[in-house]
Amino acid sequence: MTNDETVRVKRVTMTNRQISSFGFRHSFVLRHSSFVILMKILLPISELAALPGPLFLAIGVFDGVHLGHQAVISTSAKHAKEAGGTPVVVTFDPHPVKVLRPNNAPHLLTATQHKIELIRDLGVAHLLVLHFDRAFAATSPEDFVRRLVDNSKPLREICVGHEWSFGKGRA
User: Is the pTM of this model over 0.85?
Assistant: First the structure.
């Protein structure tokens, strides 16, 4: 990246008390929502270029869309709204562990279609689903972020959970 390109990486960490409070507030809002959000599924990273910027990405496997995942996605969506930007959730299919360590692959808490519905219900209209295979797993953290930056007009923020790491070698 050049010196004039700045992407903020926001790591979301929550205490158990914050998670309990977060879950109560957001489950109430979702149950009483009277609008439907249509979600656009993006497949290659290059489809980010068609979205109006600035982009705010929430990146993760989001295998269960539990309260911690909801916090990451909602934080990114809130920042996008405050800045007049576009929130996008970035996830992977299949689950990375299923590719890298198939004998230790976790049982999926949520099928991909259900995960899409849960993310949509959080108010995000764009979901980038990246195909995870051994070639993708070999991508360096720098190359992964560079591809996101190059295809976003512009990329303002990446929001991840406290245990998230980027690319090969988990940087």
Answer: no
